[in-house]
Inverse folding.
């Protein structure tokens, strides 16, 4: 504050006085340091005792408690206040159908991240920010199912969908199977799928496939001996002569690779290589001399009788005809002609069975 000082000067000629204005700086308040979210108007740096400052919150924050004024005291210090500013809060976001949302808080400047479930596409913004006015920057986006157009059809081909299709759009994950008109064959993956990218898997081609004339099998015959090329999926049947048995598929098929499927084979019958004994064949006990003709077919089972000498009983042991070979079990003992003719009741097949 200012004060007046009066001085008197004498000179030989004049007696006069004048006043000098001086100033003395009292205790002043410096611009206060407040919490980061509290705002002060203007740029004034020094304040005189008695001056007031009105406190306010920065944008995005809400005042809590008070008072909202502070006063510069004569001591050069500001009066105290409990005035604080807390972030504004946005409402809790709505759920996202067929998707997920991730956030840690809903206060000012918080962020929400949106993602869609597999097979869905996000329509709208993938993030939202809580604004200063307490609202979200964007509304909740949508998760739209991925879809494809109708599957492309190769020339001479068609597709059979796994489910009924209506309209020209097909949902993600729907599958179908390609087929070609004969004599064309699918080259590539015959199964198609609408993928998550909204596109179909690679479309196969339809190509003509033929197989050369097939060869006959040993001891067998074919349903056709035409020396021509056969179209894809055409078949030839096989059979065997006499007592030979067909092993494998009855027919072969012209395959998509231009080769025939595996041919069957004819397997030979077997002779039972014993002379004086009884056997078990097709559930019946018969003397070997009554097996007419002496042969069993491929894969048929015959049982011969062996003796358990310790227990004095007989038992049947199976053996199987495999392509003309019938192995007689080692336990079997060929009876002599005398025993066979005079003592047949003592043979392993006739005594008590173990």
């Amino acid at each position: 504050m200012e004060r007046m000082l009066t001085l008197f000067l004498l000179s030989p000629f004049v007696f006069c006085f004048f006043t000098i204005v001086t100033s003395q700086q009292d205790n002043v308040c410096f611009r206060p340091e407040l919490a980061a979210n509290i705002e002060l108007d203007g740029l004034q740096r020094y304040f005189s005792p008695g001056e007031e400052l009105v406190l306010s919150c920065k944008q995005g924050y809400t005042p809590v408690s008070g008072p909202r004024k502070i006063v510069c005291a004569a001591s050069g210090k500001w009066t105290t206040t409990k005035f604080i500013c807390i972030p504004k809060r946005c409402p809790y976001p709505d759920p996202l159908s067929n998707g997920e949302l991730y956030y840690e808080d809903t206060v000012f400047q918080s962020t929400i991240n949106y993602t869609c479930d597999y097979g869905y596409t996000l329509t709208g913004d993938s993030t939202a920010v809580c604004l200063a006015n307490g609202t979200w920057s964007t509304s909740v986006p949508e998760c739209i199912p991925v879809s494809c157009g109708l599957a492309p059809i190769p020339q001479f081909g068609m597709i059979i969908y796994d489910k009924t299709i209506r309209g020209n759009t097909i949902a993600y994950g729907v599958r179908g199977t390609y087929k070609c008109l004969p004599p064309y064959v699918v080259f590539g993956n015959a199964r198609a799928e609408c993928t998550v990218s909204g596109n179909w898997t690679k479309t196969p081609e339809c190509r003509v496939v033929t197989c050369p004339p097939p060869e006959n099998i040993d001891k067998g015959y074919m349903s056709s001996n035409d020396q021509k090329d056969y179209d894809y999926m055409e078949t030839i049947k096989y059979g065997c002569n006499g007592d030979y048995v067909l092993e494998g598929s009855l027919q072969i098929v012209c395959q998509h690779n231009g080769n025939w499927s595996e041919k069957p084979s004819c397997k030979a019958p077997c002779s039972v290589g014993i002379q004086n004994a009884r056997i078990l064949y097709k559930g019946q006990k018969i003397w070997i001399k009554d097996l007419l003709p002496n042969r069993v077919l491929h894969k048929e089972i015959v049982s011969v009788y062996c003796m358990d000498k310790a227990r004095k009983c007989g038992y049947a042991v199976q053996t199987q005809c495999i392509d003309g070979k019938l192995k007689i079990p080692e336990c079997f003992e060929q009876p002599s002609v005398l025993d066979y003719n005079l003592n047949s009741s003592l043979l392993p097949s006739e005594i008590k069975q173990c």
